[in-house]
Amino acid sequence: MRNKRIPAVRFVVLAAAVLSIAAGLFRQEHLEVMQKAVKICLECIGIG
Hints:
Elements: H1 2-26, H2 29-45
């Protein structure tokens, strides 16, 4: 019984991950993450 649920659970988790990635791209959150990464990097070397 347990082995029959594993593929269904994997599919649900995969679908949730794909939907989350698509929502983030639609909201252009990747640009905000990049801006924060640049700020952290510049602070690390003492420019920002």
